[in-house]
Amino acid sequence: MGAAALPMRSITPRLLAALFALSACEGGGLDADDPIDDSFSGEGKADAAGVAEGSAEAIGVLRVANRASQADRRGAGKVATVTAREIVGARSGGDAIEPSDDDQRFTTLAELDAVPYVGKVAFAKLLAYARARGFVVPAACTAPAPRTTKVGLFVTPDDGADPVLDLIHGARSSIELTMYQLSSQPVIQALRAAASRGVRVRVILDGDEARASVESTLRAAGAETHRSSASFAFTHQKSMICRR
Prior knowledge:
The chain has 8 helices and 6 strands, in the order H-E-E-H-H-H-H-H-E-H-E-H-E-E. The chain has helices at about 15, 55-65, 80-90, 110-115, 120-130, 160-170, 185-195, 210-220; strands at about 45-50, 50, 175-180, 200-205, 225, 240-244. The strands form 2 sheets. Strands 5-4-3-6 form a 4-stranded mixed β-sheet, covered by helices on one side. It has a two-stranded antiparallel ribbon with strand order 1-2. It is elongated and about 60 Å long.
């Protein structure tokens, strides 16, 4: 994943309320957490500091990396300026603007590990922040070992697409979506990526509002698309179930 500079016009007030620190260089040296080619993963990049790929903690770290801007000093991490800039640049795509249609979210630790200046120190900061701020979600409960599940409320459009994208990127088994109008490119591309990595994606769209281009994009990646029954005047439902 390539890195790109982030222009100031893309730093919105909402992006400022995140993790990454915009700190001054100390002693005139390079303000980075790790050497440019340092790795935080073990041999074969199967795990990082005891965190296995695909685990709840790994997903938590990726959530932080996908959400945080490079502009705020708050949080347990305080990731260094150069490190933060490289992470944001890697995910913001060729136009270096967030949000936009070419954004690239991290879906694996290996992708995050490939970013320059992201090594053991940066990973430890991201992991500490993910643990402290509730980005690490325990595995789903089972009949013999139930747990109380936290319920979070997100209100759109103020909360943006991140909560929805987090669910899609965290899905490992299946995604079932019913939508009146599906036009968000980040969501469409996330569904496409999920289908491409083997998640069973099934989408029901309103019979009159469904876009053929969206349906063909999803089907090309292996997703199933259906139009709602003509028995209904319209299908105004917006719901999604993601299974891990």
